[in-house]
Amino acid sequence: MASAKLQELVNSGKQSAEDAITSLANQVSSLSAKVTSEAESEAHQLRWWSLVQKRDEETVPGIVHPGATGVIYCTDRAQANGFSYDNPEWANMGQGAPETGDLPGGPLRIRQIDLRPWGDGVNEYAPTTGVKELRQAVADYYNREYRVGKKSQYTFENVCITPGGRAGMARVAAVIGDCYTNYQIPEYTTYSEILSVFKNLVPVPTTLHASDQYKLHVDLLRKEMEDMSVSVIIASNPRNPTGQAIAGKDLENLVALSRERVTLVMDEFYSWYQYPDDPKDLGTSLSAAEYVEDVEDDSVVIINGLTKGWRLPGWRVAWVVGPKSVVSAISQSGSFLDGGASHMSQLAAIPLLEHNRVQQEKISLQKAFRIKRDYMLSRLKKMGLEVKIPPQATFYIWLDLSGLEEPLNNGLAFFEELLKEKAICVPGIFFDINPAKRRDLFHSPCHHFVRLSFGPRQDQLEKGMDAIERMLAKHKHSAHLMGKK
Predict the structure, then answer these.
(1) Potential cystine with 455: which of 14, 98, 248, 318 (Cβ 3.0-4.6 Å)?
(2) Could you write out the three-class secondary structure of 312-348?
(3) What are the two backbone dihedrals, phi and then psi, of residue 233, each rounded to the nearest 5 degrees?
């Protein structure tokens, strides 16, 4: 109808072609303004993306596509636009993975593993709880880093080894009974699938706000425990995607909730990514383990691994630390969920937890990633995209786009336009965790954000910043049919 009107206007000569296009743009803008829910928004149909993508494939009886996490969706969209992991023209600031090569001042990366000292036993299944020696090495790491002088100490019986952090989270979720489970918004995208697949978990969201630095208020959590009978609280710390952290007295108060009839599940994969201003503080990290009074009585479950801190995502070695009863339960769930971590990787991981190597890894990481963080913040500021709440931890920048003109002030549009410049980010909408699609996300507080990762190498970040700069320059002089004439 709109195109017919345009043709009528041009043919009749009632106004110039330029006036006609302006009129059409106004009409489209007016129509988009009437969109009030995601059901009316074409962009929001990404939540049904996996179903649409598979609709032309042969239906297999009994099989339902579960959908993909936000990062997987973004990667697939990028591949549809020509991206591949070995294409040097692209900058991947979307995937949450750190660079894996040598860092200045850090220990040399392991590039070969000699299996001979372990004999043929290394080819057997490892226990679903993990190799005892590695479990003890993990317990020693927590005692050494966070529990010096405390009477209660972790032992190998407080540790379960899992094939990656998602497997650890899935194991924990599988043993949680029917209960209300609190999580926060914005939060790590995979939590959405975890909270929707395990139907016994009834999710209760808490929205964190930029106005107070995305602070998690313990008093609010306590009220939800009382009013909603919340029994489990899941939180990443440091926080993905905002780059903030719960530390000091706030973390101590949060851990204290575990002594008030609630279980804390703490995702601590970014615990090493701290950027202290005082060089004397380099090498420090954070963990809820520091404030646990009794490792058996305090209901605190910690998930971490080699993926982020040790920068070894391909090894698929992670762990869950908590009371012995929890470890026993998740060992049983692992027997049918994932079967356990690689025997070889577990044995090779043991020396990586040695104290001097850990400190060397942490200090080199914190120095190198601070340089990358500061570089990206500086480039963004020069583009007029100053980050209002800079990351104090993790390797993510939670970029507020609300100051841009339409359509780039929408994370979905920003993402799609950046693909045209051969760079990848993640729209903020994916961090508005929405288990089982219970809420309409059209007015999400995460709409006007994207997550940028400074995990990749410096040269990748430079390409990514150049891509954003090109995109902004193009759109500054281009007309759009989404509100900008």
Answers:
(1) 98
(2) CHHHCCEEEECCHHHHHHHHHHHHHHCCCCCHHHHHH
(3) -120, 125
* pLDDT reported for residue 18: 47
* Separation between Cα atoms, residue 107 and residue 230, nearest integer Å: 44
Q: How many residues make up the chain in this entry? A: 485
Confidence of residue 34 (pLDDT cuts 50, 70, 90): low
CA distance 437 to 456: 32
Does position 7 have pLDDT exceeding 70, yes or no?
no
For residue 282, with 0-12 CB atoms within 10 Å meaning exposed, 13-18 middle and 19 or more buried, which class applies? middle
Q: Is the pTM of this model over 0.85?
A: yes
Give the other-Cβ count within 10 Å of 6's Cβ: 16
- What is the arithmetic mean of pLDDT over 120-142? 97
Other beta carbons within 10 Å of 479: 10
Cβ proximity of 255 and 291 under 8 Å: yes
The tokens describing 139, both together, are 């317990």
Residue 481's pLDDT band (cuts 50, 70, 90): very low
Per 3-state DSSP, the chain is made up of helix, strand and coil in percentages (nearest 5) of 45, 10, 40
What's the pLDDT score for residue 59?
65
pLDDT at 416: 93
Phi, psi (degrees; rounded to nearest 5) at 203 = -75, 135
Round the average pLDDT of the chain to a whole number and report it. Answer: 87
**CA 320, CA 304: separation in Å to the nearest integer?**
7
**Edge-to-edge strands, sheet with 300-305:** 159-162, 318-321, 300-305, 263-267, 230-236, 179-185, 201-207
- Per the DSSP assignment, residues forming a β-bridge with 266 are 235, 302
| pLDDT value for 137 | 98
Angle among Cα 53, 337, 323 to the nearest 5 degrees reads 130
CB 195, CB 435: distance < 8 Å? yes
* pLDDT confidence of residue 10: 42
SS3 letters across 372-418: HHHHHHHHHHHCCCCCCCCCCECCEEEEECCCCCCCCCCHHHHHHHH
Complete domains list, the chain, with CATH: 46-102+360-476 (3.90.1150.10), 116-354 (3.40.640.10)
Smallest CA-to-CA distance from 329 within 158, 470, 96 is with: 158
What's the mean pLDDT in 389-408?
A: 95
Q: Judge contact between 46 and 411, C-beta under 8 A.
A: no
